[in-house]
Protein 1
Amino acid sequence: MTARDVASRRMGATAAAARNRLLPEGRVAGPMPWVIAIMMFLTVLAAAAGLGLGAGVRSMGADLAGRATVQVVTADAQARDRMAARAVRALRAIGEVRSVKLVDPRTLADQLRPWLGEEAASVDLPVPALIDVELRPGSSPAQIDARVAALRRAMAAIDGAIRVEPHAAFLQPLAGLLSALGWLAAALVALMAVATAAVVVLAARAALDGHRGTIDVLHLMGATDVQIARLFQRRIALDALLGGVAGFCAALLVILALGSRLEATGSDLVRAIGLPWAAWGLLLLLPVGGVLLAVAAARLTILRALARSL
Amino acid sequence: MPASSARGDPAGFTVPTGCAMASPKGKSQEERAGPHAMSTIVQFENVGLRYGLDSETLSDVSFSLRGGGFYFLTGASGAGKTSLLKLLYLAQRPSRGVIRLFNEDVVTLPRKRLPGFRRRIGVVFQDFRLVPHLSTYDNIALPLRVAGMEEAEIEAPVAEMLNWVGLADRAEARPATLSGGEQQRVAIARAVIGRPEILVADEPTGNVDADMARRLMSLFEALNRLGTTIVVATHDLPLIAQVDGAQMMRLDKGRLADPTGSLRYPPRGPGAA
């Protein structure tokens, strides 16, 4: 083969492809894609948990903020029914109230039956009358508080024994727990990002040491630090992309499996923990972010290391 | 490369005409040597080099090299030849003194400007330093790729260089499969393909037989006729004697043997010092 033949055979090869050959083919550091895959798997799960819990808290918050239960507690069943009817009328007259629903006593009895037995339906058992109240959506906690206060005033005008229980009061601890778990998930995502960057830094340093001879030659031929860093950036980006996609796909399967289990519970509370479309979009950005993070960490590491040489 | 376009060489090498190594026939040596011909291209003033806390490897080295000249650097093993060359091809900064390359002080030069200077210097390393995973073709093309040339611009010069060093049929071979002499020629082709203003060669004949050494030296002379300033470190005095008009510096324990720093014509005849 003549030199001209070789040159002709290389026709069409791009300068970029040729420059990419300056480092040996293969990965920068053998286990790096696997480590990044595991990191990405955990990151996506943590992020999904955070986003799902966040959605749950928001959904719960909307429900909590707009709902209250009015309890009419009177031993005399007839007086209780009259008082409940008055309360319903009074509630419907309040402009802040969107809907009012008197809970059927039979429904209450059905719900109490597992604990009280057949006596739950007895008229002798002073079960309070319950009225579900849905308020108009409010934009701030202060507005909600004001609406609940208006309900309380209206009910107090009928009878001082009527109690108004905003749902937020008894579901607030659960919402607080979910919110805390969401923040914990966000912290885990941040820690994973730091750990991923640290792995890339170690891999980049190892790669730099492994190719020190080639880098020295390139430097002495006039290669700039940025030119050399680009060679490593590309390799590390490919490794990060490979690991990121693998980790994301594995996490996706787990999320879908968990989602179907949540659906199967039939609980409105549990089903509130879901991933809206925007959350899926954010999750999809994680592998992209992982690659960008890896490239940036590699570039900084290589440039800082090269800056220490002549 | 057409044979008719090549300039004959007594040792069998021909100087390529069509690319980075084009020979400007009909011009004087000064004209051929370019803008730095016969002007001072390298200047060392009281240069000292110390590795760590050891005593100085080079002490009070002062000399000037003119553009287009052919210089030998000689001295016993351990005299500091390689260290001096490292300073020359900017692999090392001196511990003290001033080094001017192309009329610029490279000791205080910002690091980011060094690549531009390094691209003007070709280096043939004592141990060749070929990139092991690259083919002969890619090793020779390395300086042009580093300089950012497109593949289409690289192909012709590399093909010509492969022919020039007689390795066209080994273009795809990896360095590990090449003989010492072939590796040497690849290293030289790589050093000169970018048409450097200075070619620095560290013991370039240390790993080849006498015949190949003579051929390589003829190749350097051919380059020198094109205007490249040649600096060759060697302790092979008979080799030095082969090059007409070359000048010699001798290092002895890190100091130039002639304290005035003046350069001498090499002695004639093997064994002379």
Protein 2
Amino acid sequence: MKKNLKKWTIFQRAEFLSAKDLLQRAVVISLLFLALHLAGFREFTGVLNGTIGSLALGWNLSAFLAVIYIVLYLAFVVLVPILILAAGILAIGQRFLAPRTKSPAKPLPD
Amino acid sequence: MKARLQRILAGLAALMVAAVIWLPCLHFVFTRPVSAFRAEPGLSPEARQLAARHLQLWTDPALRETELKKMRVSNAEWDFMGRGYMVWSLANTALRDPASRPLYLQTMDQIIDETLRLEKQEGMYFFLMPYAKDRRYVMQPARSLFLDSEIALMLAARRAVEEKPEYKPLLAERVNVMVERFQKSPRMILESYPDECWMFDHCVALDAIRMADYLDGNDHSALIRDWIAMARRRLVDPKSGMLISSFTTDGTPLDGPEGSSIWMVTHSLQLLDADFARDQYQRARKELGATTLGFGYAHEWPKSWPGMPDVDSGPIFPVFDISAGSSGMAFIGACAFRDDEFLKPLAATLEFAAFPSRTDGRLKYCASNQVGDAALLYAATLGPLWQKVQMGAKTR
């Protein structure tokens, strides 16, 4: 099982600020936002105009849920595209700007 | 270690380049053609969906009760203003979409009748904020121009779409009361709260009087002219040249010009003095309107007269000094003066930051509330009602 998971390199922790790391962060933010969105947290954003989000949950909890949703929403629409673009820029940079290393010589057949 | 540092620096540089590319492009995701918000002629898709949502509120008592309760927890005024904006919007909608006129008229009547019933049953304080009871009104018997003006304009708007004989005496009574009190007041200033008078309410009151003149063949043009002359003299901020938003009965300013008030005031003035209205809009646009990275918004106060956030301004978002209340009301100004250059970025902000929720052909903005959405619906539909009155003689 472990061996199988290792094959899924997307789940392996990438080096900090590498292209893969940026993509992983983008995916995590997107999934978290999607979860909150599907759970209906958008309804709580009424606190932005001073209206209670939910009479049942009260002011404090409504405001707390609204803040979580708004932060993740902003991360989704502002940060995720930046992370994806940055990952693309890094990948292109590595491909074209990284110093070319000589490929190791093929061992001679015995 | 060196390789790690290089990787981190490369990552940070890539993030900065990506931000420089993305941030100026972000508004394209949310920008729609102006025709999506305001259509000429007919109804825009946005107006149709907002109207559908509001009609649902008035046909589903449980849903309405929940929405109104949410607003009344913060401000009883919003419940009342939501009714006003809804009726005025439906009047414009009925003129834009004659095929559905019976439904719109029926809903307008329902809102008006219920509002009149509540006012009669619960008293005028039902729709006012609690501090209205703290002091005695200067002019007796106590009346609130806030209520009289908006109810009168509701009745007039309904009658302007299609005559309803039962509303004729009700409108005449409101108008007569307001006119008498204007004449009785030494400075032609009437209270909405004890010794607290609002520019918004005066302009709406004069609109209602103007519409009643159109409907019933009276002439209060001298009163309207005198009032505007008085306002130009006494109720203008000398630095910005904009009308102030609240004042005492002797004309002493309480609040300076405010975005949550001035945008509607400029639109109201269109029916009273078109040149003054345009002048005020241009000043408000210059002092309060702003666009950053393709997103439009409005400040609550001009630099010449800063204020403190309150229930009208809504939250003020720092750095850019964005007022939720002023930005929402700016739609009314931008639509009234066909300022597409401002309306387009405003609409982009609405899509971006007001959290639209579209289900089954109905639209609501989650970051807004019933009164906010009703004001947006009014912005998306305004025009035909004012035009009808400005065109002159009523078709009887």
